[in-house]
Specification:
Structural class: alpha/beta
CATH class: Alpha Beta
CATH architecture: 3-Layer(aba) Sandwich
Strand content: 5-15%
Number of helices: 10
Radius of gyration: 22 Å
Largest sheet: 7 strands, parallel
CATH superfamily: NAD(P)-binding Rossmann-like Domain
Number of domains: 1
């Protein structure tokens, strides 16, 4: 029996609904003319993200609650990127305050409209589920979900008016993996991921893309205490196929990808950047929880008191 033969057409059929690929790998100038807002930009992931957007040519409005730290962060970006001085601005913003977020979005949009919006704020404390203070639990949910909701709401409106844009929320691997003694934080980040999906579904037809990035344990100002406890870090690294401590730049590069035209056909997704941690499991951090809530409170919770 003879082998079947296959022929290929001499000319490929044209792609339907084809659009320019653009600069597929980013780089200086790839975001030229685009306007961005980063809330939570005074340190860590937010600062690295502002720099990543600025280095590729975007105008970036850096926002955070503390004026002094924010100004210092902006100066740090300009020191690295002198050519970006005219494209870096700052505004004091509380990401939980809708009026402040709206005003910041309006400033970032300027006269040409908003292209990119990034929400970074969030966090949580260790506690057994049975030991959470009722109000502390609610505050953790609000601190993580509300800033993303407000930015999606107001940046989304601005982008609809312009005809499109990209919103990126910083979530966490805690959204999808059991992280013992971080129940409130896990619940909050899972809510963030679902909010991103629903908003992306609703706004996709208007050209607005909305995605999330799920960092693993990353070295930021908020995690300095954890990185100071080497046995704790080793417990995390033991559960990572890539034994690399997360740095803000690792996360910022993922955010930059989702923010830019390279990801034009991606929306409603959560990109995990964690050295493979979610392939395995979260460390059992019982001693950390005891240290946070106190031995007596921990023991009482374990007795159901």
């Amino acid at each position: 029996m003879s082998n079947p033969s296959f022929s290929t057409p001499k000319t490929a059929a044209p792609l339907s609904n084809a659009r320019p690929i653009g600069n597929r790998i980013g780089g200086p100038g790839s975001l030229a003319g685009q306007r961005a807002i980063v809330i939570g930009a005074s340190s860590g992931i937010g600062l690295a993200t502002a720099e990543a957007l600025a280095v590729d040519g975007a105008f970036v409005l850096m926002c955070a609650r503390g004026k002094e730290r924010l100004e210092a962060a902006a100066q740090q970006v300009v020191a690295k990127l002198p050519d970006a001085k005219s494209r870096i601005a700052t505004r004091v913003v509380d990401g939980l305050d809708g009026a402040q977020v709206k005003a910041a979005v309006d400033e970032a949009a300027g006269t040409t409209g908003l292209d990119i919006a990034v929400s970074v704020p969030g966090g949580g404390n260790f506690s057994p589920v049975l030991a959470y203070d009722d109000d502390d639990f609610s505050r953790t949910i609000d601190a993580n979900v509300r800033p993303i909701f407000l930015l999606i709401k107001y940046a989304g409106r601005a982008m609809v008016r312009k005809g499109g844009g990209s919103i990126v929320a910083v979530s966490s691997t805690a959204a999808v993996m059991s992280s013992p003694f971080l129940a409130a934080y896990c619940a909050a980040k899972a809510a963030c991921d679902q909010l991103v999906k629903v908003a992306a579904d609703e706004l996709g037809r208007q050209g607005v893309r909305i995605n999330a990035v799920r960092p693993g344990l990353t070295r930021t100002g908020a995690t300095d205490g954890m990185f100071g406890a080497r046995p704790l870090i080793e417990a995390f690294l033991a559960e990572q196929p890539i034994r690399h401590e997360g740095e803000p730049g690792d996360i910022a590069r993922a955010i930059r990808f989702l923010a830019g035209p390279e990801s034009i056909w991606i929306t409603g997704e959560a990109l995990t950047v964690d050295g493979g941690h979610t392939i395995r499991k979260f460390p059992w951090l019982e001693e950390v929880a005891k240290g946070v809530v106190g031995q007596a409170a921990y023991d009482a919770a374990m007795r159901g008191e």
